[in-house]
Amino acid sequence: MSEPSTAHDHSRRAAEHEVPDAMRRDVGLLGELLGTVLKEYGSAGLYEDVERLRALTIAAVGDESEETLAQAEEFVEGLSPERAKEMARAFTCYFLLANLAEEQHRVRTLRTRDGELPLQQQKPSDSVAAAFTHLAEEIGQREAQRRLKELRFHPVLTAHPTEARRNAITASVRRIGYLLDQRDDPRMGPAAQARNTRELTEEIDNMWRTAQLRVSNPSPLDEVRTALGVFESSFSTVFTEAYRRMDDWLQGEAAGRTAPKAPAFIRLGSWIAGDRDGNPNVTASVTRQAVAQAADRVLGNLEERTRTVGLSLTLDDRYTTPDGALTALWNRQKQLSEELTERAARHSPREPHRQVLLAIAGRVSATRARDADLAYRVPEELVADLRTVQDSLVAAGALRVAYGDLQELIWQVETFGFHLAELEVRQHSAVHTRTLQWLEDPGSAEKMTVPGEEVLETFRTIAALQARYGVNAARRYIVSFTQSAQNLADVYVLAEKALDGAVDAPVLDVIPLFETYDDLQNAPRILEEALQNTHLQKRLEETGRRMEVMLGYSDSSKDVGPVAATLALYQAQEKIAAWAVENNIQLTQFHGRGGALGRGGGPANRAILAQPPHSVDLRFKVTEQGEVIDARYGNPEIALRHIEQVAAATLMASAPSTEKRNAAAAEKFAGLAHKLDDASRARFHSLIKAEGFAPWFAQVTPQDEIGLLAIGSRPAKRGLSVESLEDLRAIPWNFAWGQARTNLTGWYGLGTALEAVGDLDLLKRAYAEWPLFAAMIDNIEMSLAKTDRRIARRYLGLGDKPELAAAVLEELDLTEKWVLAITGQDRLLADHRVLGRAVQLRNPYVDALSLIQLRALKKLRSGNLSEDEIQDPRNLLLITLKGVAAGLQNTG
Fold first, then answer.
1. d(Cα 545, Cα 580) in Å, to the nearest integer?
2. Radius of gyration of the chain (CA)
3. How far apart are CA 415 and CA 514, in angstroms?
4. Confidence (pLDDT) at 450
5. pLDDT surpasses 50 at 168
């Protein structure tokens, strides 16, 4: 197999040729303005040094001898400590700007394509409306409509520390993005463009002068505030826009004049300040404050929206007569508060619909202020009042008013309730076991990692939150490392003990989380045993036999490697779905996916369409974490596209054709799956179970230093030393290999497994016919494209085990060879023009940062450094961690 450098050289030239003019213009403009800032900054020679290193790393891509890369490495080694840090900051700023230019081009492309194809010509994955149309052709209009009403997309925000940027940097990037977007306005004249350029330069200068490292880790409440910022900038409008677009497509010419066909199909969840597994900073008090802040934010938003819609309803009663129900509602409102209704009547004479809606806004304000006399008890009461106004408008013939902004307000209340996001609590099963032991034997307290009283207080907090904001505000309780039915039963027992009996205990949906390979294998048996629990039986009766089961992607991949974990997760979903059908349970499988490919990352819509029959059933729930939140939801137009694609895939996953295809493929290629599983797992274990692997891993990657990066409130480890990988969290495991330009967690073991199969024709058929295998190969291809063998070899050379380094490089070569053979390409990502050109163009710039990081790592690994001597290389390393994460566009 030839050295990758030749292929990379060809790839870069091809990528440069494929870059659209508009995107090239944006990258050039932002890069030029950054250069201006670097020249003006005052550090003599900085700009010239950046350009020198940039030229060397670009030239090194096509140099098979690696002589140019060695020159770049030598140049970096000769930099002063301060200049090295400036260089790292400069390349990091470049990546933030390049990412923004790529995002802007995606937005530009989405705007161009919007409505480009008639509905009948669209693929099912193009939009929810297209998916619905295709589904109706298979199962009929009525059944398709019924399924559409059952559609549910449930993203769950987590505070896992995978967003390497400071909030201040993110805010600066968003302001630059806004200014860049303005330049696409054809009405912008020369003067406006000049002003825009000046403002862009100011913002880039501001970003350059902003410290890229946080001084301290964010607290859980800091993380809550970050999530609330996404609500303000995106969620609060994008979700209802998704409903509106769907409804417009479904209704056609009748859009806006008839009752909506689009349901409010999104529910937002959150683990932020609720996930206490291994995070001592998340306490019962913090959880209370988090829900209160979210509730205050959403109620403030609903109050403003209700008042705005109310003020717009200037419909005179002579032309839009109120019906009896609206009059009755007005009379009830007068009984609740004469002051409120008199004020509404005074400002809106002969406008009964406006009067009622302004009074409703007053009641929402009272709900926010906790005024018991006026407050709505639950969101359903507010929805009922809004529908009374809507129905009266419909009866009076004001259809467009009824189904316009007022409908969007109703959708908002249905989506967010009074709590914004449904907070979910998560705790480790061992914590529950030890707390029950403590209740029996208070003397065992010294052995506990979490105080027993704090565990009990968590249940009291859940009960209080439900009483204040409604049961849906906090009813899900996730049990990490569920290994028996007793682990679930323990939660119910503790809830009753915390509140002195079942009467005052909170309503709980206890969700098992199966994380390790063994737990995934045992999941159906554990679930069958759990059905005998009387608490679970009672809850199933109350919910119409609805239940959730969570699947962990991270730890299973760390256990057995990406290939075996992918296959194990498919088999677990298949068996759990069959168990649910057998027991008449409406199952939601909750996917604990991360951003990195080693944690289940990759395109969500493809993953959904590759799932086993009945494992989706119109419901897709998934964790959204770290940089993924900003990438998917930071820009409203990109967020809208993501929601459409996920919703379309969720709808189509239950189509008879999809289920038949997936079931047939799983059966046809069962033998292949077995061989891939065995061979890949053996290869993966031969590496991670080799003697001394854990300390070697810490030597050849910045794993230890990642724990020093202030990117989250949650510790990177659960407490064990680096001598053991068992307690290392999956995020730094993935993050570290990505930083080392190896991405081992995304592909290791596949090459050996494919070699063991050896039948290229069989593998090509599987790639064409088996969606799970195709998605896995394509995801691994992306992981390989972000890997750089030349740079990876330098990281691996930092260790003292050349045999392990050789094993990694051999597997890398073997995997790339087989992936290219299966896809029929001569270079990685050749069939993915947009993604391919982005990766190939940015890789040389990542190389520059990697060389700077290697300089710091070599110094830190040299040993015998005093605390003062450690500071410079450590700070340099931390800066490069952020830059490489931005360049590769993923952390953990």
1. 10
2. 28
3. 28
4. 94
5. yes
* Strand-strand pairing, 509-514 and 586-592: unpaired
Pairwise CA distance, residues 843 & 785, whole Å: 9
The residue among 65, 160, 184, 254 whose CA lies nearest residue 595 is 160
The pTM (predicted TM-score) of the whole model is 0.90
pLDDT of 424 higher than 70? yes
DSSP 275: B
Sign of CA dihedral 44, 47, 52, 53: positive
CA distances 871 to 179, 297, 837, 859, 860, Å, are: 37, 41, 37, 11, 10
Rounded to whole angstroms, the Cα distance separating 36 from 485 reads: 63
Neighbours of 373 (CB within 10 A): 8
Confidence of residue 273 (pLDDT cuts 50, 70, 90): very high
Q: pLDDT-derived band of residue 417, with 50, 70 and 90 as boundaries? A: very high
Considering only the C-alpha atoms of the chain, give the largest distance between any 2 of them, rounded to a whole number of Å. Answer: 88
Phi, psi of 270 (to 5 degrees): -150, 135
How far apart, in whole angstroms, are the C-alpha atoms of residue 583 and residue 547?
Answer: 11
Question: For 385-413, how does the pLDDT look when each residue is reduced to its tens digit (9 = 90+)?
Answer: 999 999 999 999 999 999 999 999 999 99
Residues 6+ apart with CB under 8 A from 476: 269, 422, 424, 425, 508, 509, 511, 548
Q: Which residues contact 519 (CB under 8 A, 6 or more apart)?
A: 481, 482, 483, 526
Q: Tell me the C-alpha distance between 203 and 201, whole Å.
A: 5
Using the predicted structure, report yes or no on whether residue 567 has a pLDDT greater than 70: yes
Reading the block at residue 495, the tokens are: 């809830």
pLDDT for the residue numbered 11: 45
Q: Is 587 helix (H, G, I), strand (E, B) or coil?
A: strand
Q: Which of 419, 535, 558, 591 is catalytic?
A: 558
**Cα dihedral angle (734, 740, 743, 749), rounded to 10 degrees?**
-100
Handedness of CA 590, 510, 225, 738 (dihedral sign): negative
> Rounded to whole angstroms, how far apart are CA atoms 845 and 60?
11
CA distances in angstroms from 287 to 272, 300, 423, 428, 455, listed in the order given: 8, 20, 9, 17, 12
Say how far apart CA 706 and CA 726 lie, in whole Å: 17
Q: d(Cα 317, Cα 396) in Å, to the nearest integer?
A: 10
User: Is residue 848 within 8 Å of 809, Cβ to Cβ?
Assistant: no
Query: In sequence order, which residues have a C-beta less than 8 Å from that of residue 452 and are 6 or more positions away?
Result: 434, 435, 438, 439, 445
Quick one: three-class SS letters along 1-12?
CCCHHHHHHHHH
Strand 586-592 versus strand 619-625 pairing type: parallel
CB-based contacts of 390: which residues, under 8 Å, 6+ apart?
Answer: 402, 403, 406, 407, 410
Q: How many CA atoms lie within 13 A of 770 on its CB side?
A: 21
Total H helices, total E strands in the chain: 41, 8
* Exposed e or buried b per residue across 734-761, where buried means at least 16 C-beta atoms within 10 angstroms of its C-beta: bbbbbbbbbbbbbbbbbbbbbeebeeee
Q: Is the pLDDT assigned to residue 718 strictly greater than 50? A: no
Domain boundaries, the chain: 295-416
Q: Which fold has domain 295-416?
A: de novo design (two linked rop proteins) (1.20.1440)
The residue written with tokens 């854990």 in the block is 694
- Asked whether 255 and 203 are in contact (CB, 8 A), the reply is no
Mean pLDDT of the chain: 90
The one catalytic residue among 85, 160, 575, 882: 160
CB 666 within 8 A of CB 574: yes
Active site residue 558: yes
- Dump pLDDT digits (tens) for 775-828: 999 999 999 998 999 999 999 999 999 999 999 999 999 999 999 999 999 888
User: Could you count the other beta carbons within 10 Å of the beta carbon of residue 885?
Assistant: 27
